[in-house]
Amino acid sequence: MKKVFLSVLIPCYNEEANLKRGVLNEVAAFLREKKFTWEVIVSDDGSTDKSRDLVKFFIKNLAGFSLLENKHGGKVFALASAIKKAKGEVILTTDMDQSTPIEELDKLLPWFKKGFAVVIGSRGLTRKGFPWYRQLMSRVFWLLRGVFVLPEIQDTQCGFKAYRVEAIKKIFSHLEIFKKMQKPKGWRVSAFDVEVLFLARKWGYKIKEVIVDWQDRDISITKKHNFINESKNMLSEVLRVKINDWRGKYD
Fold it and tell me: Residues 194, 152: contact at Cβ < 8 Å?
């Protein structure tokens, strides 16, 4: 059995419209051209639309792809489930909508040879395709998050991130968010990425932020967003990370 170099983890919640665009075929076409070994794990978060059936249909003829069928718990739980199953030396997390296309992986991988354990995609401060109110909320979140934690990182929330497997498995096993999160209803955006990166830095893992191409390609109509509530949740989680650190919970 060949050793796997790269595990691509894709969380999925009501992604029917994006799946019909053929996003998994895009991922497969890119990875087939690579010389390294890989696997793709789609981790479904209890979708209520036809996402699971569509994934099963697509991966039926896609070698190296698998589907995890989870109960609904939120994106961070879907990723945790996939991380436990992942066999790769490097773990890439990427969103189903492929707003950051899989091809941007080529910008991340070289940094692992330079000693970095965490290499994150960054959209910078300008978000193509974001309406003005989301641009504003992103700026406010960036400013407040920078005051409390991770001032040196521009974009903690881009879903396109890569990690050494030993780093991400250790970090996810210590996330306080699993102890505090309430059961979500529908699609829930959280700031768990902040806690992940905070722990990576605290525990001495070298982090590299790399600008990647990003444009909003999400056409899902069943993921309902309430950006005001999402912003409140994310800011409260940032404060929780700082409080947890003051209390020594990450020591």
Answer: no
Which residues are 9's β-sheet partners?
41, 93
Q: Both ends of the chain: CA-CA distance in Å? A: 38
Q: What is the CA radius of gyration of the chain?
A: 17
Give the residue among 158, 164, 174 at the shortest CA–CA distance from 244: 174
Distances (CA, A) of 152 to 119, 128, 156, 159: 14, 22, 10, 18
At which residue do the structure tokens 């249909």 appear?
57
63 CB contacts (<8 Å, ≥6 apart)?
A: none
**Which residues, listed in sequence order, are joined to residue 208 by a DSSP beta bridge?**
119
* Interatomic CA distance for residues 181 and 75, integer angstroms: 12
Q: Is the dihedral of CA 21, 190, 158, 115 positive or negative?
A: negative
DSSP class of residue 251 equals -
Give residue for tokens 């990370």. Answer: 241
Domains, the chain, ranges and CATH?
6-246 (3.90.550.10)
Strands 207-211 and 65-70: unpaired
Per-residue pLDDT tens over the stretch 140-198: 665 666 656 788 898 888 999 999 999 999 999 999 888 765 565 555 556 799 999 99
- What is the CA 20 to chain-centroid distance, rounded? 21
Give yes or no for a contact between 88 and 164, defined as CB atoms under 8 angstroms apart.
Answer: no
C-alpha separations of 155 from 33, 121, 209 in Å = 29, 8, 8
Per-residue pLDDT, averaged over 17-37, amounts to 97
